[in-house]
Amino acid sequence: MRLSTKGRYAVTAMMDLAIHDADGPVTLADISSCQSISLSYLEQLFSKLRRSNLVKGVRGPGGGYRLARPADEITIAAIIAAVDEKVDATCAGDSDCADNNDPCLTHALWCGLSRRIYEYLDSITLAGFLSRPSVQEVIRRQDSGAGRGDGHHTLPVS
To answer: What is the pTM (predicted TM-score) of this model?
Structure first.
């Protein structure tokens, strides 16, 4: 099972947004530059994220995007679902993975795995993941390399 580029990029962009949200709106150009994600691809993703009420746009000078809710209320599973991504390890993604519309021999196994993956991703919030020391080190490295801030971000706890 693999998570598509769409899901991985959406999570990465939302993490970048969460890191810098306290500094004000973040432009897609900044995220694109720092995370090496195409600007046009980000525009498509953020359109879906906005419709799912995970981000809100800020117009005008100094505009960009902000989180629509606190980072500790946004789960990784919600981000993936917002961009129409399915985390599905089943053989065909539904119960008709064999002949005669009957599930295959191992279908229940793969359904259970899909459920566990979803539960795991739904248990991790942006704030929770970003507070991990290994992630904080990546944030410092990226920010100093991209000239964004001082590389010392702490997430607000709501």
So the answer is: 0.82
In a domain, 67, yes or no: yes
CA distance 131 to 109: 33
Span 60-66, average pLDDT: 90
Summarised one tens digit per residue, pLDDT across range 94-123 is 555 666 677 888 888 888 998 899 999 999
Tell me whether residue 39 is in a domain: yes
CB-based contacts of 83, cutoff 8 Å, min separation 6: 6, 7, 10, 45, 48, 49
Closest C-alpha to 79, from 67, 63, 65 = 67
Which residue range is the domain that position 74 belongs to? 5-85+126-146
Q: Report yes or no on 105 lying in a domain.
A: no
